[in-house]
Amino acid sequence: MIHSVRGPVLEIGLDHAVVEVGGVGLAVYATPNTLAGLRRGDEARLATLLIVREESLTLFGFADVEERELFQLLQTVSGIGPRLALATIAVLEPDTLRRALADGDLAVLTRIPGVGRKSAERLVLELRDKITAPSPVAAGGVTSAPTPVLGQRDQVVEALVGLGFTARPAEQAVDAVLAATPDADAAGLLRAALSSLGRSR
């Protein structure tokens, strides 16, 4: 298991970053908030988890061990794979997720793309007794990072669809953010659209 990676950030995309480790560039998939805390050229250290499938090896990165543990825990629920687990921690912060599971708050859990009432009930049933109490100390803020790119609207919509949202609501959310803040960079646009979609579910 690749427990963590540390090295200079070579590239930052909307759903992944490339971190150089020992002369090798590793593509690490992560949430928008984790990616927003990285800067191209700076050294990064990410907690990681390697998902092995017959056809692929995919490395997922997290700002801290807490996020990685939640990512792993979510995948113990039937029907929850890496993509949906990543979407979950992208939409809900760790404390919010823990509290929702502990309280059986289906309204919060159904904000997650691809999670309906039955899936939310299954999450509560299978995870309520496995989670720890929400941490009273909030995590530190993240810094903005990636620079604007051409065609960023389409790239952000594609990233949202990759997280499990359907195309039309994703397009509407991105267009609404662009109308309010036309100078938003891709990372900021993605975070704001995610926030908007989470509230609307």
UniProtKB/TrEMBL annotation:
It holds the Pfam family RuvA_N. Belongs to the RuvA family. The keyword Cell division does not apply. HAMAP family: DNA_HJ_migration_RuvA. This is Holliday junction branch migration complex subunit RuvA. The RuvA-RuvB-RuvC complex processes Holliday junction (HJ) DNA during genetic recombination and DNA repair, while the RuvA-RuvB complex plays an important role in the rescue of blocked DNA replication forks via replication fork reversal (RFR). RuvA specifically binds to HJ cruciform DNA, conferring on it an open structure. The RuvB hexamer acts as an ATP-dependent pump, pulling dsDNA into and through the RuvAB complex. HJ branch migration allows RuvC to scan DNA until it finds its consensus sequence, where it cleaves and resolves the cruciform DNA. Residues 72-91, 107-126 form the Helix-hairpin-helix DNA-binding motif class domain. CDD domains: UBA_RuvA_C. Its main location: cytoplasm. GO terms for cellular component: cytoplasm; Holliday junction helicase complex; Holliday junction resolvase complex. Homotetramer. Forms an RuvA(8)-RuvB(12)-Holliday junction (HJ) complex. HJ DNA is sandwiched between 2 RuvA tetramers; dsDNA enters through RuvA and exits via RuvB. An RuvB hexamer assembles on each DNA strand where it exits the tetramer. Each RuvB hexamer is contacted by two RuvA subunits (via domain III) on 2 adjacent RuvB subunits; this complex drives branch migration. In the full resolvosome a probable DNA-RuvA(4)-RuvB(12)-RuvC(2) complex forms which resolves the HJ. It is found in: Cytoplasm. Keywords: ATP-binding, Cytoplasm, DNA damage, DNA recombination, DNA repair, DNA-binding, Helicase, Hydrolase, Nucleotide-binding. It comes from the Bacteria. The keyword Metal-binding does not apply. Residues 154-201 are annotated as: Domain III. One of its GO terms (biological process) is DNA recombination. Has three domains with a flexible linker between the domains II and III and assumes an 'L' shape. Domain III is highly mobile and contacts RuvB. SUPFAM superfamilies: DNA helicase RuvA subunit, C-terminal domain (SSF46929), Nucleic acid-binding proteins (SSF50249), RuvA domain 2-like (SSF47781). One of its GO terms (molecular function) is four-way junction DNA binding.
